[in-house]
Amino acid sequence: MIKKHLPNALTCANLLTGCIGVVYAFKGELKSVAFFVIVCGIFDFFDGFAARLLNVKSAIGKELDSLADVISFGLLPSVVFYQLLLQSPNIPFFLPYLGFLITVFSAVRLAKFNIDSQQSENFIGLNTPTNAFFVTSLPYLISDFTFVGKPYFLIVLILGLSYLLVSNIRLFGLKLHSTSWQANKYKYIFLIFSAVSLSFLMFAAVPIILILYFVFSQLHFKYQQ
To answer: How far apart are CA 14 and CA 71, in angstroms?
Structure first.
């Protein structure tokens, strides 16, 4: 019984962590939110890993995973956008609420994922954890790159990311079926560049990593398949 319910317990831990992160985001402690997203990402990885390892995949587990992700990787980054816009002076009262478009489009993206057999190994559209990691890095960037906190820039980001979540752009997943260099060349190069960027730039590397993800994904699908 423990083995059967372990993956769902990890998914629920993801959901609980995401809910706590939302509280911190509404309190304005935006730099803390990145920590909660990282923990959610760890739980999100290991619930699927445990289900495959223990061979206890279930339909309810798949649905529960997406419901948890709507909070952890949909609502949580939306609140970050909401709070960043709320801090902007002299803007229309309704503008901060545009941040919640991320929640809406994340939910649509997860619904599409659940019924799309083409996304079992790779992604069509930006996946919600990657989007959430990017959004929660923004509070760390504002002190060095002040334009990041400007309302017009945040709105462009919201609209752009909302589009990417439901777009037909193909992106590779990082589940490796073999360790072959030839089969995974662009994935390995992406991981190496990402690790080097993080070691030197910390949170400032996250936007660079997102761009690299798109670039190396396109190279992977063009030359590796």
So the answer is: 9
